Amino acid sequence: MITIIAFVVILGLLILVHELGHFISAIKLGIDVEEFAIGFPPRLISIKRKGIVYSINLIPVGGYVKIKGETEADPEDKRSFANQKVWKRSLVLSAGVLMNFVFAFVILSIGFFVGLPQALEPDMEAKNISNRQVMVVEVLPNSPAFDVGLQASDKVISIDGQEFVSNEDVYNKVQTFNEEPLHIVVGRADEILEFDIVPAVQEDGSVLMGVSMLDTGIVRYGFFTSIWKGLKYTGVMIWLVLVAFYQLIASLVTGGGVSADLSGPIGVAVITGQIVKMGWSYVLHFAAILSINLGIINILPFPALDGGRLLFVLIEKIRRKKLNQKIEAIVHNSGFLLLILLLIVVTYKDFTKFGGQMWESIKNFF
């Protein structure tokens, strides 16, 4: 139940923020808006004020803005979207993406102020850190840790009854291995798991489990530092997501295919449930990443997306001539159908990968 609510709230909020960007920019630039909707039809309730219909719909995921003249222009209507200057239309089309980035910056700044999970650095002040933990960040294939079932993101709680908050102390403990298996207790989401592991002894006498570890904790900053950290980290995440999309597109172009780790709605829902179990500080972090992803996906120059519509506006600027709206509509509708097809394919992959977890959630719900 918590997973479903969290997924709907997070995804719905991110889409609403995006649409709010289009809405505010259109209003401020003197372009008529016909409807601002929360959720998708069928419509439940609505109210009309100053010519704009504000509605609440049944399907509670996101919303939409209907701007006058987006699909059919009236040459006599000066407040129609299609009759606006190129810079105005470009700004309206880009505003949703900008709002997603701004939203990520805001929630990250709040997160840094109230506390976000981070890798700990030696120069961090101890008074700003809580919930210190040792996290497994990588498990080497065919290693002792891999063989017993340790996974990345596991948190090391204890080894042979000794608790740890430093990966250096864990390493020192492992070096004391002397034939008897080490009893390791880890936290995974909301579970506590126990393993007996026999580390590998190297030729030089060192003892290895086959994991990379990192010290983590909830780190808090002052007000102004939080704003700077939020801005800086938003920029870093935008760059990382752009690089990831470039690698994905390059792989598709070169015939490398789509990574098995690519997730759609079901995958995001499952991951959301796992994140919620880790705590709300992790939810803030995850929501910021999703917001940036949503913004970058929408700015891609693909038909039906904001980036595709922006591309048509720029082509019109270069040609200095209005484009045929019927042809543009056909292109965007075709792009929308391709996106739906892609969504179906990714959802099917999600179902084969996460179907068992989703079915268990549904059974627990009832």
Describe the structure.
- 52% of the residues lie in helices and 22% in strands.
- The chain has 366 residues and is of the alpha+beta class.
- Strands 3, 4, 5, 6, 7, 8 and 11 form a seven-stranded antiparallel sheet that branches.
Annotate the secondary structure layout:
Elements: H1 2-28, E1 33-49, E2 52-67, H2 86-114, E3 116-119, E4 129-139, H3 144-148, E5 155-159, E6 162-163, H4 167-174, E7 182-188, E8 191-197, E9 200-201, E10 207-208, E11 211-219, H5 223-253, H6 265-278, H7 280-299, H8 306-319, H9 325-365
Structural class: alpha+beta
Radius of gyration, rounded? 25 Å
Helical content (DSSP H or I, runs of 4+): 40-55%
Q: What is the global morphology? A: elongated
Q: What's the mean pLDDT score?
A: 80
Number of helices: 9
Question: What is the rounded distance between the termini?
Answer: 9 Å
The H/E string reads HEEHEEHEEHEEEEEHHHHH
DSSP, total strands: 11
Main sheet, how many strands, which sense, barrel?
A: 7 strands, antiparallel
Strand content: 15-25%
Return residue spans where pLDDT drops below 50 for at least 5 consecutive residues: 355-359, 361-366
What labels would you give this structure?
9 helices; disordered C terminus; alpha+beta; 366 residues; 52% helix; single chain; seven-stranded antiparallel β-sheet
Task: Describe the structure concisely.
The protein is an alpha+beta fold and 366 residues long. 52% of the residues lie in helices and 22% in strands. It contains nine helices and eleven strands.
